[in-house]
């Protein structure tokens, strides 16, 4: 019987992805912030101008801190989204250094990265709508903060949503998804620009969206959001990024995940609904602790946040974690917050 090579490769890849993928337990802890493994030292508002400020990222670059977020009239479907960049030398006082626009596009989800020339960049996705709300254009955009002009370094029409660019050695990677096409792929990115598909995570299930890949100590780690579960993937061989050991945990719709590695754990932050019935009043920005060795996931902290919230930027300096995030706590629209968290384990 004849079997095509393409069928064999696809079947083998699905088998590799499914290896080790099972639903694991999760300690939901208490809603109150009586946790001991971390201590929330500070939480303060950084920016608020009575518009909806959301979707943050944070980086330390050339001795300064940079914070990016989207500013618009609403969370979604608004057509006036811009990217605001703040700069600080001490994480206390912040100066607005630029606000990026692109034609009539709604700019969303800015994410920092540094290129091989040492330039600080950020990527985002821009949406252009017709008056009838028909989507005319969805573009992947890259802006160079070192450039004197405000135009994009890269503009490319894409049929998916590249989430966050991560560099390993001299190569760049991202995970992109499309809910309409029901795909989520790992891509290698180049500045030509182009996206080369390495593999897809579709066998994990449906409703897979925002995902991050990061590289630590000759390993790679992936966190993927879905409507049903939170997926954590571990790659032990960087020569084969599609050989992933997946774990899944029963956390529904964990919004905008981000993470850093601390010792033998992943500290994962994002929006979680900590109540029952998926009421937005119970949304919080939370910090999870995933123990890589014991395969245990627990809630480590609940930040002062509510409603439309989450999408954190994260920086780790020894045993201190700095997080940016947004929240509608006490606000008509969302504001940008910064928190310092001491790690006690």
Compressed to H and E, one letter per element, the order equals HEEEEEEEEEEEEEEEEEEEEEEEEEE
Measured by DSSP, the beta-strand proportion falls in over 45%
* Average residue pLDDT: 89
Judged by helices, strands and strand pairing, the structural class is mainly beta
Domain module count? 1
Uncertain stretches: 1-20
The CATH C-level class name: Mainly Beta
Q: Overall 3D geometry?
A: globular
**Which architecture name does CATH use?**
6 Propeller
Strand order of the largest sheet: 1-23-22-21-20
- Major sheet summary line: 5 strands, mixed
Distance between the termini: 58 Å
Describe this structure in words.
The structure is a single chain. With 345 residues, the chain is mainly beta. It has a single domain (21-343), classed as Neuraminidase. The chain has 1 helix and 26 strands. The relative contact order is 0.17.
Which properties best describe this structure?
345 residues; mainly beta; Neuraminidase; 4% helix
Write the layout of secondary structure elements.
Layout: H1 5-18, E1 26-27, E2 38-47, E3 52-61, E4 64-72, E5 82-88, E6 95-100, E7 106-114, E8 120-129, E9 135-144, E10 154-157, E11 161-162, E12 166-168, E13 171-178, E14 183-190, E15 194-200, E16 208-216, E17 219-226, E18 230-235, E19 245-249, E20 255-262, E21 265-273, E22 283-291, E23 296-302, E24 310-317, E25 320-327, E26 335-343
Parallel strand pairs: 1-23
Antiparallel strand pairs: 2-26, 3-4, 4-5, 5-6, 7-8, 8-9, 9-10, 11-13, 12-13, 13-14, 14-15, 16-17, 17-18, 18-19, 20-21, 21-22, 22-23, 24-25, 25-26
């Amino acid at each position: 019987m004849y079997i095509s090579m393409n069928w064999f490769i696809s079947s083998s890849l699905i088998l590799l992805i499914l290896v080790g993928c099972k639903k694991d337990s999760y300690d939901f802890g208490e809603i109150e912030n009586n946790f001991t493994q971390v201590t929330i030292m500070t939480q303060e508002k950084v920016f608020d101008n009575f518009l909806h400020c959301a979707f943050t990222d944070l980086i330390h670059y050339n001795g300064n801190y940079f914070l990016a977020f989207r500013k618009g009239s609403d969370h979604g479907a608004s057509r006036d989204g811009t990217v605001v960049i703040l700069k600080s030398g001490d994480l206390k006082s912040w100066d607005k250094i630029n606000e990026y626009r692109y034609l009539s596009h709604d700019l969303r989800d800015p994410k920092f990265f540094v290129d091989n020339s040492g330039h600080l960049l950020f990527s985002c996705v821009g949406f252009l709508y017709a008056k009838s709300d028909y989507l005319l254009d969805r573009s992947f955009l890259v802006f160079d903060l070192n450039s004197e002009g405000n135009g994009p370094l890269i503009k490319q029409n894409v049929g998916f949503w590249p989430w966050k660019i991560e560099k390993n050695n001299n190569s760049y990677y991202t995970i992109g998804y499309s809910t309409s096409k029901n795909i989520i792929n790992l891509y290698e990115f180049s500045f030509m620009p182009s996206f080369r598909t390495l593999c897809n995570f579709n066998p994990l299930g449906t409703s897979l969206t925002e995902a991050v890949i990061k590289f630590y100590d000759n390993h790679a780690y992936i966190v993927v959001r879905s409507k049903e579960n939170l997926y954590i993937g571990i790659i032990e061989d960087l020569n084969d990024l599609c050989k992933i050991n997946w774990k899944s945990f029963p956390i529904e719709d964990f919004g905008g995940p981000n993470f850093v590695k601390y010792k033998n754990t992943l500290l994962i932050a994002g929006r979680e609904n900590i109540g029952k019935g998926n009421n937005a009043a119970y949304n919080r920005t939370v910090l999870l602790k995933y123990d890589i060795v014991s395969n245990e996931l627990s809630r480590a902290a609940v930040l002062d946040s509510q409603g439309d919230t989450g999408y954190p930027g994260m920086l780790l300096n020894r045993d201190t974690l700095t997080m940016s995030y947004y929240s509608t706590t006490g606000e008509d629209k969302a504001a940008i917050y910064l928190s310092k968290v001491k790690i006690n384990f």
